[in-house]
Amino acid sequence: MQVEHAVEHAHPQLGFWRKYVFSTDHKIIGLQYLITAMAMAVIGGLLSMLMRLQLAWPSAAYPMLAKLMPDTFVGPGIMKAEFYVSLVTMHGTIMVFFLFTAVLTGAFGNFLIPLQIGARDMAFPFLNALSYWVFLLSCIVIVSALFVTTGAPLGGWTAYAPLSAVGQPSGPGEGLGMTLWLVALALFTASGLMGGLNYVTTILTMRTKGLSMMRLPLTQWSLLITAILGLLAFPVLLAAAILLSFDRMGGTSFFIPSGVYLESHLLANTGGHPLLWQHLFWFFGHPEVYIVILPAMGMASDILSTFCRKPVFSYKMMVYSMVAIAGLSFIVWGHHMFVSGMSPFLGSVFTMTTLIIAVPSAVKTFNWLGTVWGARIRFTAAALFSIGFISIFVSGGLSGIFLGTSAADIYLQDTYFVVAHFHLVMAIAPLFAAFAGIYYWFPKMFGRFMNETLGKIHFWLSFVGVYAVFFPMHILGITGHMRRIYDPLFYDFLKQDKGINIFISISAFALAASQLIFLANFFVSIFAGRRVKENNPWHATTLEWETPCPTGHGNFGAELPVVERWAFDYSVPGAKNDFVPQTVPQGAERL
Amino acid sequence: MATVTQPETARSAGAPPTWPTVPRGGGGGGGESESSFPVSSKELAIWLLLTGIAMLFGGFASAFIVLRGVPSWESVHLPGLVWVNTAILLLSSVTLERARRANKKDHTGSIRRWLAFTAILGVVFVGGQIDVWRKLSAEGMQLASNLHGSFFYVLSGIHAVHILGGLIALFLVMRKAWSGKINSRNLEPLRLCATYWHFMGGVWLLLLVLLVIS
Question: Is the pTM of this model over 0.80?
Fold first, then answer.
């Protein structure tokens, strides 16, 4: 079916603003999330470049940067320590919430859910649009925190109390900057709840005829489970943020204990407990890790299956593993707090629950290997990024076993070993899955292909780049290199790490530069990429490939598809083609 | 491709295209059955919303339980008006339930009367809570004076905000009732509103157990 002007046909009477800006169409909202998250990625990435500059060459002068940001550099252009810590804080916050959560659930969730379940839109399209606009507002608020004259927030993305609770006196960015951080997170939470409610409702109640739960693509399962996790976890963060706001602005003492001196002045607060913040934050924080990684797992599974031309190995176990990971994610938060004075017995309980998560994770990994095993893989950019996702997930996951064990964690806590671990497992791995998703669904989004050669160059530079950046960090961590420190050369025992830090920084700059290839490929391809001439260019099985590229409003025209089979009928013996779409009736594949 | 035929509905010029309602949960039967998902999208959404609210108050409750064990904890005596307010909120659940039953029987006058009673009781509850805060403040118990008092102010305040949200929903239902759109063929708006309202009543009772009895 020729589809070039499908969107125009479906929107004959809507103007530009209603069609592309204030739209309630899930696909447009998905793309809005995608573009906004990409902008946030650029901001978060630039912040990390500044951090790497400081870590490799501490106390070096950067007169040019000092001219651009006069408040954050001193003397001939040396970065202020406070600015460095705010870079750490803002990089972490922007990347965790406003990139990874937004791109994996916001962008792909919105774009794919109705398409893959055979629905015309989300259950509540207006709520969906509202979710995006509140998200955009939260992005504006968090970015504005960078420009506050009193300083950007600097308490880390975890905003540990009591520093975060006592306000401006605890640091230059802990005043208005921290308030904006809290407002941004509250808005983000509200947006996430609106989205999550919509996702669960849509997937459960709007599947087309024949699409039973066990016929859903794994992307849909992962988005469903993620949305449920979000609905259960984000409100707890909101509760903590509300209590923290009252401590900051109302003078309450929820997180501020008795006897705290600030600038030689005894605070009047009594009775609070800073560890309470950590418990509430990590009760949300660990499920948040899976809110990021589960959609990545689902998307990588589906994309791998398509390009391996094989059914995903052990579909049911893939589903059950995700359910198990999601359930366990609520009883492991204490492993972030092994050195908080926690009872060793309780620590051993959290060690046990944490290590149990390795079981469903390993099941998934072996199933991915089973999917790839013996396959004639079509090495497209999307396939490469999916395979890269597995590699990086395993690399990051293995170090998690060390960190989940309290005895080892007590040594490695707050070192670069932790930085290496979480960057690989919950940042780079999801990022690779997101790249895979973009290369894979780009034809469906824009009716054009991204350039495959550039995509492969992007993959290899990124793949080598991320290992060059993050693998040496394990070594730094084992030498005792603390995270969040402004000047490693201040400590004699870290002077030996100078060479590694320089290597990491140069690798990071190269890695960042290689992302420009992706950005150029993405934006140029929207307008000048090779046109897609068929609905199903990858010869995939799921329902979105029954629709035109790009898909018009209403997705399926006047008729909704009926699902006749599961989502992984690749290389079916006796079938005419090596893929059988979900809409082909049983037996008809042989005709 | 097998398809479900659905005629496109007419739409006025300038309005976004509208599509016929998608058969809900047709996939529930996995192709062997036409059975729908057992609850409607809106009903599921309301329960998901309530799950989120339960987790929000669960977070507050766990914070309260943790800090309740701190040695410097001092309990605050709350004004007796709290109990009056609680009775009013519970009574509002009863009146709303009467409205829901009247809805089933198409007793338009009763629906309107009981909805109006519920709204009045809801407003009185919020006003009563504000009066409790004023009484506490007059007794010297400010927001930051004492942890127990802080919890009371914050938790009852957040709960009152949720009741105000319920009142907005209630006023929307009342508008439908006054325009004759609520009847035995359209039970859902009132049922969803009642579900939320009763749930928030239950949340208040649990908060009361925490804040007063403990």
Answer: yes
